[in-house]
Amino acid sequence: MGSVNKEKEILNTLFAEEGEKYPVVENKEMELDEEVAPFIEKIEKELYLTKPITDDYGQPIVTAPSAQPVQIVLPVTQSGFLFGMQQKVTESVRWLAEWCLRLIKMLGKQVVFKKEANEPH
Length: 121
Fold this sequence. Notes:
By secondary structure, the protein is mostly helical. The chain folds into 2 domains: 2-39, no CATH class; 53-112, no CATH class. The protein is built from 3 helices and 4 strands, in the order H-E-E-E-H-H-E. It has helices spanning 2-14, 78-85, 92-107; strands at residues 53-54, 60-62, 72-73, 111-112. Strands 1-2 form a two-stranded antiparallel sheet. Helix 2 (78-85) packs across helix 3 (92-107). The longest helix has 16 residues, at 92-107.
């Protein structure tokens, strides 16, 4: 909590002339009444998903930590990706291709291109 307080104090000194204040408030754990304390039990446990949470298209959004890596299908084919990378940066297809390239760099072999329409399954 100390670093948050220091950040707020720094913000207060930097923006002092604007008149806006960032209150420094420390939250402490609530003390229990003696009558209630024997009936209260603090429970801390890990939550594990039994199956991954998917979006409307079946792509996993959230998986359990122990789940195996999933394959992510990019929204473009490989030829569409190559076409997009040759376009100017003002074109939206170029930005889609750059986003796909970022995913490929981040996730490596987990990412695959969408199949071509004439390509066999």
